[in-house]
Structure to design on (153 residues):
């Protein structure tokens, strides 16, 4: 499925770090940063999550909801969120169905070994549930600030 700017972001239903279910459609009327990341508590993912945490007041002031998704479990997300005091929602996609829906489940190569995994990507979704921007190949450093600037544009 090809995702297109200006078209509706695909709806889904996943559990957060507390076991509560969330649907993307629950956020209609709000701007949403939907960021996909490879793995809880790894260096790049921690940098990215803490960047969103450190800018969270600015996101709240701008009326933007931050939601992270990885294939880690609800329990893993709870530990990650608690350890780094993450004030936003982390959704568990253990079967990577939502990752596939958004086209971020891809073949990756690390040290000559190929495997399937999440390609770090961020989607900006407007109040009507439409894709405003797609940010592939994200650099975790400074990403939260870049997202705020793009949403403001």
């Amino acid at each position: 499925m090809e995702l297109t700017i200006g078209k509706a972001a695909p709806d889904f239903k996943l559990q957060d770090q507390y076991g509560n279910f969330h649907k993307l459609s629950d956020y209609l009327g709000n701007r949403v940063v939907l960021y996909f990341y490879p793995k809880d508590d790894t260096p790049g993912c921690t940098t990215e999550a803490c960047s969103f945490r450190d800018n969270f007041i600015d996101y709240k002031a701008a009326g933007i909801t931050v939601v992270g998704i990885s294939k880690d479990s609800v329990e893993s997300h709870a530990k990650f969120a608690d350890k780094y005091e993450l004030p936003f929602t982390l959704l568990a996609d253990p079967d990577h169905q939502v990752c596939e829906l958004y086209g971020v489940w891809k073949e990756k190569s690390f040290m000559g070994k190929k495997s399937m995994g999440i390609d770090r990507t961020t989607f900006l979704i407007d109040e009507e549930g439409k894709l405003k921007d797609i940010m592939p190949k994200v650099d975790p450093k400074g990403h939260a600030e870049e997202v705020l600037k793009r949403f403001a544009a």
Residues 43-54 form the longest helix (12 residues). The beta strands are 13-16, 21-23, 31-36, 64-70, 89-92, 105-110, 113-118, 121-125, 131-135.
